[in-house]
């Protein structure tokens, strides 16, 4: 750049605005630039992601594998030099996957590839057989007469598109989220859905669902998208009933231990509210949870480590690796119950893979507009565009945001995220180290701004 970054910032933000938040004027924006650009050479985030997915692998919530992951995280965070590393325990009900298969019995016998959805009821060991009835949407199923559905295996399709912001997941996820309840209420024997994903691999996408409004649990599974296409062709071509044999074995266990792993970078001001940065430690049981969400843990931890190594921030930074996110935000809800009434300067979460960040949103409030603007300016050289000043998001931190806590959202490119999400393909090779470094740089700049400025350590001394 031809001008110093600090000079550009001061030119962009009027001084009266800066005066609204005195902390902004204490931040050395040249130092923010240095830290941000240095993070573009980061290798710690990838090393954490590689270590967790290799040494632990799948980390289903509430299982011994998740417990091993918590132990791994504690050792790694302590070795990195973070303070107050601990496990904050809670318990939760646990669903365990068993054998699963789907076969067309008639009129065109063949195997299909299926995965049970989280909280699916179990079929008998020998499976169940039934006529398949197809629907184009949950709304079409709701409109069906109960006698059309009763005793049959319901199938629901959808047309989820690829989008940069992942917004299709909210709308097109309805077959997984609401479909099982509606099918059960109409007397279905079971339900299968097109996977909530955008890929064309024979990898079914799992995901959690629940039976609402007192609906009786029934077996529920997701077909891979090519197999969903095949079933739709069979339904269209068949001259008579299409019969499926479905086996989805599972167990529901009583409460099992889980927990959040918490670590801190102490701040100079012991009374200051912390900046919380988060990810989630658990994963589904099919892949190794690299993009969802080992990468997020690597990214936020590497950024916090860079701030810690640079000196001492004004405000403390709290790193939380949440437990049991995938099956119902149990870790986030436990944190909210224990600490949600305490002040937090800002909260943010990385849980959308590791592809480049393209937009920053924030909801810090009108009195902190200068801080939000400083954050925007610090991120622009990374190709990150300014978004809303009135919103932020994150899975585990969602309940805290709903309660009104201030938040920041660093939005990753989700174009390919739902090709991999909740599938056996969620593995380390899908993480792009170059894009991951851009994430670390963005999070480092974000923490450098939100933590209120970093006081360099005296040479030869570590406090």
Give short descriptive properties of this protein.
single chain, 463 residues, alpha/beta, Aminopeptidase, Glucose Oxidase, domain 1, 2 domains, 11-stranded mixed beta sheet, 3-stranded mixed beta sheet, 18 helices, 16 strands, elongated, disordered N terminus
Write the layout of secondary structure elements.
Layout: H1 5-12, H2 15-18, H3 22-26, H4 29-38, H5 44-55, H6 64-79, E1 83-106, E2 110-112, E3 114-116, E4 128-135, H7 138-143, H8 146-149, E5 153-156, H9 168-172, H10 174-177, H11 179-185, E6 190-194, E7 220-223, H12 225-237, E8 243-265, E9 275-280, H13 290-310, E10 312-313, E11 317-322, H14 330-339, E12 346-349, E13 357-363, H15 369-379, E14 385-386, H16 398-402, E15 407-412, H17 417-420, H18 433-450, E16 454-455
Parallel strand pairs: 4-5, 5-6, 6-7, 9-11, 9-12, 13-14
Antiparallel strand pairs: 1-2, 1-8, 3-7, 4-8, 8-11, 10-16, 13-15
Helix pairs in contact: 4-18, 5-13, 13-18, 15-18
Mean pLDDT: 94
Beta strands, count: 16
Question: At CATH's second level, what is the architecture of the largest domain?
Answer: 3-Layer(aba) Sandwich
**CATH level 1 class label of the largest domain:** Alpha Beta
CATH superfamily of the largest domain: Zn peptidases
Rough outline: elongated
Main β sheet profile: 11 strands, mixed
Helix/strand/pairing category: alpha/beta
- From the alpha carbons, calculate the radius of gyration and give it in angstroms: 24 Å
Q: Under CATH, the topology of the largest domain is which?
A: Aminopeptidase
The share of residues in helices is: 25-40%
What are the segments in which pLDDT stays under 50 over at least 5 consecutive residues? 1-22
Ends apart, CA distance between termini: 34 Å
Q: What fraction of residues sit in β-strands?
A: 15-25%
Please count the helical segments. Answer: 18
* Integer count of domains: 2
């Amino acid at each position: 750049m031809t001008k110093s970054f600090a000079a550009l910032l001061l030119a962009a933000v009027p001084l009266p605005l800066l005066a609204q938040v005195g902390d902004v004027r204490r931040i050395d924006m040249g130092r923010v630039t240095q830290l941000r650009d240095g993070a573009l050479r980061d290798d710690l985030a990838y090393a954490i992601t590689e270590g967790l997915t290799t040494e632990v692998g799948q980390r289903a919530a509430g299982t011994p594998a998740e417990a091993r992951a918590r132990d791994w995280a504690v050792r790694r965070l302590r070795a990195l030099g973070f303070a107050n590393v601990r496990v904050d325990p809670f318990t939760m009900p646990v669903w365990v996957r068993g054998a699963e298969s789907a076969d067309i019995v008639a009129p065109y016998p063949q195997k299909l590839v299926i995965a049970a959805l989280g909280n699916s009821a179990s079929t008998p060991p020998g499976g169940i057989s039934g006529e398949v009835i197809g629907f184009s949407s949950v709304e079409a199923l709701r409109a069906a007469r109960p006698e059309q559905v009763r005793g049959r295996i319901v199938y629901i399709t959808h047309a989820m598109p690829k989008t940069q912001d992942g917004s299709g997941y909210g709308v097109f996820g309805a077959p997984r989220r609401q479909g099982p309840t509606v099918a059960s209420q109409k007397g279905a024997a079971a339900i299968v859905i097109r996977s909530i994903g955008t890929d064309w691999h024979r990898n079914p996408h799992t995901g959690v669902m629940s039976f609402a409004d007192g609906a009786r649990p029934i077996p529920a599974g997701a077909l891979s998208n090519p197999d969903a296409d095949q079933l739709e062709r069979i339904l269209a071509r068949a001259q008579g009933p299409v019969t499926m044999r479905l086996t989805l074995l599972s167990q529901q266990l009583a409460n099992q231990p889980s927990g959040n792993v918490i670590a801190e970078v102490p701040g100079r001001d012991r009374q200051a509210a912390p900046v919380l940065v988060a990810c989630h430690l658990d994963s589904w049981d099919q892949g190794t949870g690299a993009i969802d969400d080992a990468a997020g843990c690597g990214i936020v931890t590497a950024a916090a480590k860079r701030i810690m190594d640079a000196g001492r921030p004004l405000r403390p930074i709290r790193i939380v690796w949440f437990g049991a996110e995938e099956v119902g935000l149990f870790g986030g809800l436990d944190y909210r119950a224990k600490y949600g009434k305490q002040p937090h300067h800002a909260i943010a979460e990385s849980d959308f893979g590791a592809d480049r960040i393209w937009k920053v949103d924030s909801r810090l409030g009108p009195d902190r507009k200068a801080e939000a603007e400083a954050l925007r300016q610090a991120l622009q050289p990374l190709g990150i565009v300014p978004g809303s000043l009135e919103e932020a998001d994150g899975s585990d931190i969602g309940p805290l945001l709903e309660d009104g806590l201030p938040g920041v959202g660093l939005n990753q490119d989700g174009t390919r995220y739902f090709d991999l999400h909740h599938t056996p393909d969620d593995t380390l090779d899908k993480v792009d180290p170059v894009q991951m470094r851009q994430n670390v740089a963005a999070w480092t700049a974000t923490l450098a701004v939100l933590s209120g400025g970093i006081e360099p350590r005296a040479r030869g001394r570590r406090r």
